[in-house]
Amino acid sequence: DFIYSIRGIHELERELRDCLHIKEVIVVPGNLDNENYVLADIAKATSELMNKLIKNKDIIGITGGTTMAAVAEGMEQQNKDKNITVVPARGGLGRRLESQSNIVAAKLAEKLKGNYQMLHASDTLSQEILQSILEDPEIKKIIELIKKVNLLIFGIGRAEDMANRRELPQDVVEGLMKDGAVAEAFGFYFNLAGEVTYEMKTIGIQFADFIKIPNVIGVAGGARKAQAIYAISKLKKDMILVTDEGATREILKLY
Ligand code: F6P
After folding, report:
1. ipTM for the complex?
2. Residue 25 CB less than 6 A away from ligand 1
3. Whole-model pTM?
4. 188 lines ligand 1 (CB under 6 A)
5. At what angle do helices 2-20 and 245-254 cross, to 10 degrees?
């Protein structure tokens, strides 16, 4: 019955937290791989958590992807101006879909009655052009802001899926797989031990910045992402994970 299933979920949260050794885990019922409604429940759980954590003048970073889009969409409209700024965590990570991180950031800012900054940079830039872009005063301002992010909400993807979504060259994809990459988050690819194996050349949050952010929420559901979630939880012990029952049961089965 209902009470039993809520208890069951709390039990799963405890088990997963102990398995991943991270600060907090929130699990919603269902498996996103099979049931679409789970995405809205993950988004709702995430936005409720954010509402508890958000303070006046916070600088919030958010990534792109369908999960983050759902989080921004599912956020309740606030009517008090808390002087919040939202920034996309990293610029131009993909070819099409992912310039979405700008749209997601704008949407979240609107819901939080805050301001937002856009980050325009493509991932196909050469190292030289990237360097010169970093000299641009507008970009510099945003980079400074990104370094001050105190709450980051990010999506977690399977390395292979993300490499394909981003249409990385075949030799890069093969290299990634050979290096054992299983997870992707904010432009970095990681192996199961949580070590960086590849990085997209773009501007925005760097790995060293990520480690120092006080509040970090990773969000991902679906049993297919079990390995990816496991890898990402190696990065930062004080992170909070929002996931679903499908991913949770798979992680507990594997590890
Ligand atoms: O591209 C942005 C991003 O947050 C990636 O860093 C992450 O791997 C992916 O999206 C997750 O996408 P989705 O929520 O669509 O599975």
Report:
1. 0.99
2. no
3. 0.95
4. no
5. 50
